[in-house]
Amino acid sequence: MHDRDCLHRFMFEDYPIRGHLVHLDAAWRALIEHREYPAAIRDTLGEAVVASLLLAATIKFEGVLSLQLQGDGPLHLLLAQCSSGLGVRGLARYREGGLTAIGTGTGVGTAAPIADLIGTGNLTVTLETDDGSRRYQGIVPIAGRRLAESLQGYFENSEQLPTRLWLHADATGLSGMLIQKLPASDSQPQLDIAAVDDAWRRVQLIGETLTAEELRSLTDAQILHRLFNEDDVRLFEPSPVYFRCRCSRERVGGMLQGLGEEETRSILAERGEVEVRCDFCNRAYVFDAVDVARVFNVGVAGGGGTSVH
Question: What's the predicted TM-score (pTM) here?
């Protein structure tokens, strides 16, 4: 199918309005390959992954954007991350007992109502550069029935950029669309503010007519023609999207250092090795006695140790 595992940017030629369309198939299946999430949790995680992609695509940076939902409901923690190169990963932490009474939603977003899953909580968007020199964080309360509504509140409160999102997730794939009204630039002094505001209202209303099936199955060119055929819209070349975990043996070694030498050696003595499994990709990192010595004494040489799936 066309336009899978890629992100398309588009721009309205006559107005300061831009947008993104994204679809994940293989990348989504790779992300959840080692997890058996209940459908409500899986689809909410999928919506968050799509949203992290759409948000990351609006920013010029070198690093990682994290979208985190945390609350007192059965889904007490959800984390989706997207790198500046459009590599994604994500995970969810939930309590089984609280999911029995939760249904699913309808429309473009088919995950369960977000308040039923998260309860009272917050949505946090964090942007961190690769070199650690810059870190930005915006926090807003969970609001509305859909994740897209909470994100709309984030943009209004933290970014001051009018933004709308449409998200869809199921077991086989993810899709999403973002439109955003930009400030008029100095190169566009001829733009009439009232005309721009009218165009923005119209674009949002038309976007609301997009169905989940259309967002999931149509190509991006077809979606734009279906919605905005009366406007002059430029569709740019696609950018690939992929599943990428950022775990590494060095990062795990740093985690063991944070755990402490005494605790790490206690685990080693009890089990004969220390195994750490990545929550995102399920890769196992195994540290034997020589590896543990190297973690806590950089002067110890030697190989040893393995990492396996």
Answer: 0.84
